């Protein structure tokens, strides 16, 4: 089951939208942020904590789960929801992004699919095709599956971007034909930084996908170029389907993309940066290992209501980080995810109240105030 | 503030006792298990989780906190309770055990105290004396402080054990004189594996300590010898003070020691072993990385009521462990600590109900059943 209701799409000074996705595992209010749970767990968090933070959906990585513990095993154990004890919706990627982007992976690809070697299992050979990508995601029991695509690198010449886009288009159609389940399936718009290629993809794709992701962005291009491509895509995409900007981004990037009509986001920034000592706050970012926090008895973010900010000082967080304590990763991840999920919630409210442009302006200004 | 009420000391077939310690940070029901929070955090756990598990007191390590972040800093930041967000009692060791036992630490000691070099701060020299050990523990704001002692190695000749015991005795008295606070202070009985030396220590020590720890056990001696020494000590120690067996042990060790009249325990086994993949269950121990758990959809321990056992399968825990996920360390630690704290709770109840010997027999039998 998958339904998208566009609740609000016209608002002064923005193309931002408010919507709701309904799945058999529950509803997702959009715009939404999806925490990344690469290996069947959002690193350092329990599902209960994610729910308390307000997460309505998580993303999990097909590539990692295919290799370990294996999608057939997850299926036998009752599916990914039961395996990881998460009863809300799950979106899975197709596995393609990891295969194309992991630097030390040997791979060779044809129109049929891609053969690759993983280092996890001693260099055994694996093969991924559009049909297999769907089979794996159906075995996992994903609520929202993604088509297999090729993420066009940046920069790429127009002929290269065209070849890549056309391959992704053929693969997207094969994914649609391969689907045996009721699970939702999203297409992924490619086309590099060429507006006409992006439009061509969107026009060529049959309209019976449940939603549309925009791929191949945030791959090194200037931010203006990224937003320009987002704009090209959201202008052309059907209004009644959710739009998902893959792998983006900073809090500012997300507000900008909402402004251009994006509904769904995922990004490793809040979780990965937390573990690396980078904490997002309402007044700017903090590198918690800095010596200036050694004796700082204030909370990370004085206006934040998360558990971390209510109970612990910067000095304690720094101590835990310096001592490589697991509790550091927990408290830092909790805080960063709280900021992201709360930001999306506040963005939704401001859209509903016709105040998004002012909300965004104030947020940007405050973030520069440190 | 420190009070100990011996609520029950006579029961059929056991020397086990039931009591209650009252401190200004709350009560501790004995026999009790104290989770170890070496660096101002019980690894992988939040204080809220420890409370939900029923932990009434934690242990923290003076040596580690002295070196990082520093006891004066902790004091300025409001004391250890505030620093680590734990408002229940804290027991601190004296720092001596780490200095004497860390293999790669350079040290030289005299009657005055011990000089040592730490690798944490580039080999800077530090000095610890009985007076400084108390000063540090008072700065941390410990509810129960321990005297500085020398942990006699095993095996040790009688003259060596005597010299060591006499040094510990002189240091214990100096600690008592150095105390400026109302914080409780425990003596630590040394004397190696020589009953007369243990008795001599106990008789020589003035009776105005708040409790008595038994040190220098579980250092490689046979288990019978350990229990024999525990017996010698608990027979000689004053009845109206709590007895604490330091660093012990397995669930079986703990029940045996309760049987011999011990009231308090600490041990890294449940937390450290959890992180290393060793899980305690009511029917024996599990090495979760074993291939036999790959497809095992059962909970870790079918009779356990902890969050881990209620929500996650062995197959999932194994997957998390193999993938080095932080959530593994969390769920494993939670389970092992639940088993320990619940074991102590059940031991208390069985003592109160005059059924400890049968409880212990059944627990041992079930643990051998796997």
Can you describe what's shown?
2 copies of one chain form a homodimer. Chain A is an alpha/beta fold and 370 residues long. The first copy, chain A, folds into 2 domains: 265 residues, TIM Barrel (Alpha-Beta Barrel); 103 residues, no CATH class. Chain A is 42% helix and 18% strand. Chain A is built from 15 helices and 17 strands. Chain A has a 6-stranded parallel sheet. In chain A, helix 11 runs antiparallel to helix 14, helix 13 crosses helix 14 and helix 14 runs antiparallel to helix 15. Chain A is globular and about 60 Å long. The model of chain A has no long low-confidence stretch (mean pLDDT 96). The interface between A and B is medium-sized, with 35 and 35 residues.
Explain the layout of strands and helices.
2 copies of one chain form a homodimer.
Chain A: E1 2-8, E2 18-23, E3 26-30, E4 32-34, E5 36-37, H1 47-53, E6 58-60, H2 62-67, H3 71-76, H4 80-84, E7 90-92, H5 96-101, E8 107-109, E9 114-117, E10 125-128, H6 130-140, E11 144-146, H7 158-178, E12 184-189, H8 195-204, E13 211-214, H9 223-236, E14 243-245, H10 251-259, E15 264-266, H11 269-275, E16 278-281, E17 284-287, H12 307-311, H13 314-322, H14 326-352, H15 356-367
Parallel strand pairs in A: 4-15, 5-6, 6-7, 11-12, 12-13, 13-14, 14-15
Antiparallel strand pairs in A: 1-2, 2-3, 8-9, 9-10, 16-17
Helix pairs in contact in A: 6-7, 7-8, 8-9, 10-15, 11-14, 13-14, 14-15
């Amino acid at each position: 089951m998958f339904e998208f209701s566009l609740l609000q799409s016209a608002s002064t000074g923005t193309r931002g939208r408010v919507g709701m996705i309904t799945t058999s595992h529950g509803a997702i209010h959009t715009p939404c942020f999806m925490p990344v749970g690469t290996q069947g767990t959002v690193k350092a968090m329990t599902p209960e904590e994610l729910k308390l933070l307000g997460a309505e959906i998580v993303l999990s990585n097909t590539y990692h789960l295919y290799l370990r513990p294996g999608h057939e095993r997850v299926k036998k154990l009752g599916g990914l929801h039961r395996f990881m004890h998460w009863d809300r919706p799950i979106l899975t990627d197709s596995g393609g992004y990891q295969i194309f982007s992991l630097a030390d992976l040997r791979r060779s690809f044809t129109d049929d699919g891609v053969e690759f070697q993983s280092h996890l299992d001693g260099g055994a050979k694996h093969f991924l095709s559009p049909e297999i990508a769907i089979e794996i995601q159906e075995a996992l029991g994903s609520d929202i599956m993604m088509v297999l695509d090729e993420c066009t690198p940046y920069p790429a010449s127009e002929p290269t971007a065209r070849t890549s886009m056309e391959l992704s288009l053929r693969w997207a159609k094969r994914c649609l034909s391969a689907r045996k389940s009721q699970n939702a399936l999203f297409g992924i718009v490619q086309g590099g930084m060429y507006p006409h290629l992006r439009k061509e993809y969107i026009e060529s794709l049959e309209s019976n996908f449940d939603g549309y992701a925009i791929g191949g962005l945030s791959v090194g291009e200037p931010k203006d170029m990224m937003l320009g491509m987002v704009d090209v895509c959201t202008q052309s995409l059907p209004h009644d389907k959710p739009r998902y900007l893959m792998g983006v981004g900073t809090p500012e990037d997300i507000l900008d993309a909402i402004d251009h009509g994006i509904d769904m986001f995922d990004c490793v920034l809040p979780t990965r940066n937390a573990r690396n000592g980078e904490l997002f706050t309402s007044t700017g970012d903090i590198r918690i290992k800095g010596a200036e926090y050694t004796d700082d008895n204030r909370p990370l973010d004085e206006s934040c209501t998360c558990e971390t900010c209510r109970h612990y000082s910067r000095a304690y967080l720094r101590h835990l980080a310096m001592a490589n304590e697991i509790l550091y990763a927990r408290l830092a991840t909790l805080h960063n995810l709280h900021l992201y999920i709360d930001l999306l919630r506040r963005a939704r409210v401001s859209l509903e109240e016709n105040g998004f442009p002012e909300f965004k302006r104030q947020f940007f200004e405050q973030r520069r105030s440190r």
